[in-house]
Design brief:
The complex is a heterodimer. Chain A has 18 helices and 10 strands. Chain A is globular, with a radius of gyration of 23 Å. Chain A is of the alpha/beta class. The N terminus of chain A is likely disordered. Chain B has a single domain, classed as MetI-like (MetI-like fold), CATH 1.10.3720. Chain B is 71% helix and 1% strand. The chains are: A alpha/beta, B mainly alpha. Chains A and B meet through helix 3, helix 10 and helix 17 of A and helix 13 of B.
Chain lengths: 446, 282
């Protein structure tokens, strides 16, 4: 079914839910001077504040996802014909945030834009709308239908949401089924620990002379700070005392050092995963999981739509157990509405519509993973997805946010995490040295 | 009146932004809220910022190695291309071509050539039994790789040398040949001194250009690995547009400007020692 074939019943049903929730009303206790809506955005009896024309900003995610975004906007326009007209504007990621900042500086912010951690700085400067009153008028406030506890990291003031969540992502183990079949190995599943992964990776690695022609494992996103932190979480530790405005880093915790050593050893001691130089060379040559050069790899669930184009058979499962436990990172995707948006009602309508009415269609699109429990676990969602998708999301309620929210987090990511984790993965420093260095440098920047 | 468009353009698009950036360099400004006056804090922080000091070192290393090598290669090729052979027009165009290609496009080509496993350079080295390094990801080789790549853009310098060579009076060479001077001595005692003013120009432009290199490290290494290719303009860019530290970035820009000024002045001050003038004075 294409996006244009979404049933009218579903649309009306969604609107109905929104309207019903709207009757419940809400209280706005954030102390802001914003109006407190009692009618769900987009309802025909709601007065329109601001322009009817809305420009939706997002960074480009490749042709498939971009195309779905355009279709989403087309559907929105169809459903709100005569009331709102939206258009999409894609920017390359590295220009997206510069443009957002420049627009704020010029006093003409985007009407609405897609969230990433940089937007936290906009919240800190009191530039973004408290969307809690709006959310309270929609089905999104229904804790039985949405994983509301997972929204908590976005309640920056402890009470209110400052972005409208519409999708969720996590991290999984992806594997090439053809490689496992050829090696006569059992497929990974949610019972696998990292020890099982290491054993299988050793058997899957193939060489021709001195060249490795097939790697059993690529550390993938396990090598990113949040991937590595998932091992610390499983071992009962964490890199920071709290994700929102941390006051200290806890890098020298033995659990974190052990996680670092494990990851380093995958490349340097066991060498079942390519070392950074080998990884870079493989990546530049297009030899990766998609091309069949890698048997297993941790990656974000946003990679699913890209892997759907693979020739080889593949599947996914939950990230392996570490110390007998598993705590995956998760991220919320959603919409930020500036306080000075030129199209307030249209923006609120688009954001909440995306998070509610549009969810079944998002499930069918298989690009983003719906935030609605029903849509995420629906037949439509699971039908086109790899068999292990459900197991990857089974424990999502226990996942932890894969972000750290401080205004200068980008600086810490690049100048502290990036450089020092490079030292770890290039085997230039021991895990103890890297942990100590991150501890000192990151704490100094808090 | 006829000069006014140029003057207005200069004021609006050059001097205006320069003054604004100077003022900004004394503020803390993240584009999201109004600038806050912090006096000389940004400059004081620069002195204590290990990454800034490293990027300064990287930039100077890049400049000190890249500029002379580029000039020598450009001069040698200009001498070869100064021959009166009919095919020289083709070679002049061919050697100049890399200079007119966009820096990003050039960087993408080199990115492939530098690939540690499948890149052209390591494949050729492999034929010779040499296991080539990971050019862009090995901390020891990344800056060298950028410098080597920069030499490829010698076309502009070569063209200026070529123009200089073609303006040299031939009677000096005829006299030298009559006196029995070898070709090498002619180049050493006639060509080089007579081209010294061209060398001076190329040196100044080379220094300025090398301290403004941005596209190549941005595309190839983004400052890594371990900040070993964090040239000053890249560090400035990161501070301005990734970390939104506009005031700090403006301070970096002014330090970079001061650095270029000082180096250029040093070159100017040294001209009496080595630049030959029309009047025959050093």
């Amino acid at each position: 079914m294409t996006i244009s074939e979404i049933s009218r019943r579903a649309v009306l049903g969604g609107l109905g839910i929104g309207a019903t929730a709207g009757l419940v009303g809400c209280s706005n206790d954030n102390g802001s001077s914003q109006s407190t809506p009692t009618v769900s955005p987009g309802s025909s009896n709601q007065p329109i504040e601001g322009a009817k024309e809305l420009t939706v900003y997002c960074w480009s995610n490749g042709p498939t996802i971009d195309d779905n975004f355009k279709k989403r906007v087309a559907l929105f326009n169809e459903q709100y014909k005569g009331r709102f007209t939206a258009k999409m504007n894609f920017l390359p990621y590295d220009q997206y945030w510069q443009k957002a900042q420049l627009q704020y500086a010029a006093g003409k912010p985007f009407d609405i834009y897609y969230w990433d951690v940089q937007a936290y700085a906009h919240y800190k400067k009191n530039l973004v709308e408290n969307v809690q009153p709006v959310i309270n008028t929609t089905a999104l406030a229904d804790t039985t239908k949405f994983p509301s506890a997972l929204f908590d990291p976005w309640r920056f003031d402890g009470k209110n949401l400052y972005a409208v969540p519409e999708n969720i992502q996590s991290m999984s183990l992806f594997y090439n089924k053809d490689h496992f079949d050829a090696a006569g190995l059992k497929y990974p599943d949610e019972t696998w620990s990292w020890d099982d992964v290491v054993t299988a990776a050793g058997k899957l690695k193939k060489t021709s002379g001195s060249k490795v022609t097939q790697w059993g494992l690529d550390i993938g996103t396990l090598g990113v700070w949040w991937g590595l932190q998932s091992l610390s979480w499983a071992a009962g530790s964490s890199w920071v005392d709290k994700a929102l405005e941390p006051t200290k880093f806890q890098m020298t915790d033995p659990a974190t050092i052990e996680a670092m050593k494990f990851t380093q050893d995958l490349m340097w001691d066991k060498h079942i995963a390519p070392r950074p130089e080998e990884r870079n060379a493989l990546n530049q040559a297009g030899a990766n999981f998609s091309s069949g050069a890698i048997s297993m790899m941790c990656d974000g669930t946003w990679a699913i739509s890209g892997y759907q184009q693979m020739k080889a058979k593949w599947d996914m499962t939950a990230i392996p157990l570490w110390k007998g436990k598993r705590v995956a990172p998760y991220w919320l995707g959603g919409w930020v509405i500036p306080k000075k948006t030129a199209a307030k009602t249209a923006a609120e309508t688009f954001a909440t519509w995306s998070a509610t009415t549009f969810q079944p269609q998002m499930a069918k699109n298989h690009d983003w993973i719906p935030i609605s429990n029903e849509a995420r676990n629906s037949k439509d969602m699971l039908a086109g997805m790899p068999a292990g998708f459900a197991s990857a999301f089974k424990d999502i309620e226990n996942a932890k946010i894969g972000d750290i929210y401080t205004a200068n987090m980008q600086e810490i990511f690049n100048q502290v995490f990036g450089v020092n984790l490079d030292d770890l993965y290039f085997n230039r420093k021991t895990p103890e040295q890297v942990a100590q260095k991150i501890q000192e440098m990151a704490t100094a920047k808090l | 009146m006829f000069m006014s468009p140029a003057i207005i353009g200069l004021l609006l698009f050059s001097l205006g932004p320069m003054v604004a950036s100077l003022v900004l360099s004394f503020t803390q400004y993240d584009m999201l809220s109004s600038p806050t006056w912090v006096g000389g804090d940004n400059y004081a922080t620069l002195v204590r910022d290990p990454l800034f000091l490293k990027s300064l070192r990287v930039s100077l290393t890049y400049s000190v190695i890249s500029v002379p090598i580029t000039m020598v290669v450009a001069l040698l090729l200009a001498m070869l291309l100064n021959s009166k052979l009919p095919v020289m027009g083709f070679f002049r165009s061919a050697y100049y071509l890399p200079s007119v290609i966009s820096g990003v496009a050039v960087a993408m080509v080199w990115r492939w050539m530098y690939n540690g496993e499948y890149g052209l350079i390591n494949v050729v080295l492999g034929w010779l039994g040499i296991d080539g390094p990971a050019w862009l990801t090995d901390e020891r080789w990344a800056l060298r790789s950028l410098i080597f790549m920069s030499v490829w853009g010698f076309g502009g310098t070569m063209l200026i040398y070529l123009a200089g060579l073609q303006s040299l009076p031939t009677d000096l060479y005829e006299a030298a040949r009559v006196d029995g001077a070898s070709t090498l001595r002619q180049q050493w005692y006639i060509t080089l001194p007579m081209l010294s003013n061209v060398t001076f120009f190329n040196l100044v432009m080379g220094i300025i250009g090398s301290l403004q290199v941005f596209a190549e490290p941005f595309v190839l290494t983004n400052g890594g690995p371990n900040n070993s290719t964090m040239l000053l303009p890249l560090y400035l860019y990161q501070n301005a547009f990734t970390y939104l530290k506009m005031g700090y970035a403006a301070a970096i820009a002014w330090v970079a400007f001061a650095l270029v000024m000082v180096l250029t002045l040093l070159v100017f001050k040294s001209t009496p020692v080595w630049v030959h003038t029309e009047a025959g004075e050093n």
